[in-house]
Every structure is written in C-alpha cells, then in structure tokens.
C-alpha cells in the first residue's frame, strides 16, 4: 500500500470493503494502462487468496486453463480432469475457499474479466451462480472483478439485468492521474520538473501511470517525448492502435469518432459528429459514443442553462490527441523530431486548446483556488456564431465565473485588441443569456497576468497553473 501514489478516494472505497461484516463484490474498470491491477494487488496484497487474469482473444479453453493453473498451484490435491465447464471451475474454487482456515477477509481477484467471458461459454452465468449461491452466504469474501473494456463492465456487470442485478456493492472507475498525482508520481521516482514542464508532458501523454513509468530521469521533457513517441521503438510510437483494439470490439467504428473529434479543437455537436464521422444516426452510434465517454476518451459539455439542448463533445484523452496531431505523421523521423515540432506555430496553437481541455479536467482544483468548493455550482459552456466560452461556473451565490484559459510561456498580457475581444464576448454572452448574475471574468494562465489598465478593469480573478496541482 505504501507504493500507491494518490488514489485517495479509491483507497477509501477499497478500505471500506475490509471493514464490513459481509461479502462484497467490487467492480473496477478503466482504460488500459491506468493502474487497475497495480491498485488491487498492492492494496489487497495481504488478503489475496486467488488471482487470475483473462487472456486477450483467448478461447474458452484458454481461459479455463489459466483458472486450472492457479487452482493447481493453490489446491494441488484436486482432480482437475473433471473441470469441463465454468460451473465445474467455480465449484472447485468454492472447495478451495472452504479449505482456507485463516480468519478475516479473503480477496478473490479476477482481472480482465470481460476477456474471460467468451461467447457462448456461460462464464457470466456460472459467475453469477458463484456469487449468489456461494459468496453471499459468507461474510469474509471480497470478490474484485476488473476490466479495461468499460462497455462490458458497465452494460454486462454494473447494469446487469439478470443474476448480477444490483449485486455490485462498489464500483470504481479508475481514471488517469490528475496533475497533483502525476507530480507526486514523478517525484517519487526522483524526477523533478517545473510545473510548466510537467504540464507540457501531461499534454502529450496524460496521467497514465504506465506511460509515466517510462520517463527517464536525467532527460528533459523534450528528450523524453522524442524517445517515447518518435523513436521507432518508443513505447508510445504505436500504442494508439493497440489501445483501441484491446478495449473495444469493432474498434474501427470507435476510431472514426476519435479521428473526427481530433480534427476540431473547440468541440462538436452530436449532429455534426454523426455527419462528419459517416455514421447513421441511431443506436450503434450512441453505443459507441457512450463507450468512449465511459472509458474516458471523450467528454461532453452541456450548454449554459441547457437553453438549446446542446452538448459539445471533445476528445479529452491527451495521448490520442497528441498521437493524431503529431506522432502519426512523424513517428519514424528520428531523434530531434519533437525539438523541431515543439517550436512550430502548429504546436503553439494546439497546446492552447489542449491546455483548455486540461483545465476542464481540473475544475475542482480551480474551484478550490477560488475558495468556492463549498458553494453549490454547475459547470457548462456557451457559444454562438461569434464567440465561445469553454468554462462557466454558475454559482448559487449569484456569481458566474466566466473563465478564460491561456497557455503561454511567460506572464500573459491583456493588450487592447484582446481587451476589446473580451468585452465583446462578455456583452454577447449577457445579451444572449439575459443572465441577472454578476459576471466575474476569471483568467487561468500558466504564469499569471500582467497588471495593466485592461486587466484592472475586466479581471476579477487571476489563477496561474500552480492551482491545477492542488489535491
């Protein structure tokens, strides 16, 4: 447990399972490489009595053999020739669990659960029987089922309408590290970057622990990105294709949505997304989009007051955005590729929009810095034909924080042109929404803003990037 960085909420949830006087069924899901297995193994290390991991694209027989192997190790006196069905396998698991004499909670961990549930294998039915007919009669078991395929975990397990209906006692959606956790993770490995460099790294690969593990101490951010993303043997050089194949069946259709979203920085409405991705409007599109949202690749932002019943969709996975913009067309250009690309106007423009998405992931930190974490508020976006606001914080104390987000490598100056643009945007928003609330222009920048006549007139709150690193 001492090796776990961050994950305070998740640890609290797992800890509660140890304190209850009943058996618990815990479902954990999240994208590939996010640290699900590491979290379970390390937190429950003292309590694990059985662990098995599903095989990607393995047959029913392949999956049964990995159970067989684990049972042989833990229960060597068993007659395994009789294990012909999943019901046989779980019956033997019950016998093994009955043989354990230790007191206290015992954890059964089934990793990559969706991969084990092959077509027509009756695995899910047998597991339901194992939980309902055996585990619920005991008070000392914690069964953890884990999977990267979020659609399966949500639809077939959490929202199960059969034998597992309402049986999940805890569900944990494990997301990548935020900036605070990323900073802790790097420092724990002796890697110390400035906040600005950490953000630049995050914009390229996000807070995925497996990716961050590959950062080399003693190399700059640019050198690390070059090595990981643009060297032909780099870990992130071709991770993109493997990522979606391992998460989704028929991933080509998910990739159509991802690639369409990658072409727009400002977000796109559902109707435009359907038209530009070449989907027919209907259930299949909705399912694929929901799966991408649940897996943390796509975010949806509601329109202010939902006046137009509009939602904007944005690609929010940093690595996917970076891959499609920079890696895909330059992946074999060799050492120095990123040092060249990082000083181009294309990167300057792209990083500004990427920083906006990053801030939208850290709204709680922004609210904390504003001192309004205890004030009820809702978040939304607004746009019309001439202007757009990516983040509005609508507060119950008669204030609307209108957030302007700027990524810049120094102190940001509001000049006359930008000042007039801001005034027009605020006026347009007020006219369009007819809001009666006070509008507080809130600047969120990397190094803060320079105080001048324009900032003094317009800006009520100025936050720099350090607030994004708050817990």
Kindly describe this structure.
The protein has 471 residues and is an alpha/beta fold. The chain has three domains: 8-173, Rossmann fold (3-Layer(aba) Sandwich); 180-361, Winged helix-like DNA-binding domain superfamily/Winged helix DNA-binding domain (Arc Repressor Mutant, subunit A), CATH 1.10.10; 362-469, Trna Endonuclease, Chain: A, domain 1 (3-Layer(aba) Sandwich), CATH 3.40.1350.10. Helices cover 45% and strands 16% of the residues. The protein is built from 21 helices and twelve strands. The strands form three sheets. The protein has a five-stranded parallel sheet, sandwiched between helices. It has a five-stranded mixed sheet with strand order 8-9-10-11-12, with helices on both faces. The longest helix has 18 residues, at 416-433. 39% of the residues are buried. The mean pLDDT is 92.
Which helices and strands, and how do they pair?
Blueprint (H helix, E strand, L loop, with lengths): L7 H12 L4 E6 L6 H8 L4 E6 L6 H15 L11 H14 L6 E6 L1 H4 L6 H11 L7 E7 L2 H9 L11 E4 L5 H10 L6 H11 L3 H4 L8 H10 L8 H9 L3 H12 L7 H8 L5 H12 L3 E5 L8 E5 L2 H10 L9 H5 L3 H17 L1 H8 L6 E7 L4 E8 L3 E8 L9 H18 L4 E8 L7 H6 E5 L8
Parallel strand pairs: 1-4, 1-5, 2-3, 3-4, 10-11, 11-12
Antiparallel strand pairs: 6-7, 8-9, 9-10
Helix pairs in contact: 3-4, 4-6, 9-16, 13-14
The CATH topology of the largest domain comes to: Arc Repressor Mutant, subunit A
Computed over alpha carbons, the radius of gyration is: 25 Å
Name given to the CATH architecture of the largest domain: Orthogonal Bundle
Which quaternary structure do these chains form?
single chain
By DSSP (H or I, 4+ residues per run), the number of helices equals 21
**Which shape, going by the Cα principal axes?**
elongated
CATH superfamily of the largest domain: Winged helix-like DNA-binding domain superfamily/Winged helix DNA-binding domain
**How many β strands by DSSP?**
12
Structural class: alpha/beta
Uncertain parts: none
CATH classification class of the largest domain: Mainly Alpha
Mean pLDDT: 92
The major pleated sheet works out as:
5 strands, parallel
Strand arrangement, major sheet: 2-3-4-1-5
Q: State the helicity in percent bands.
A: 40-55%
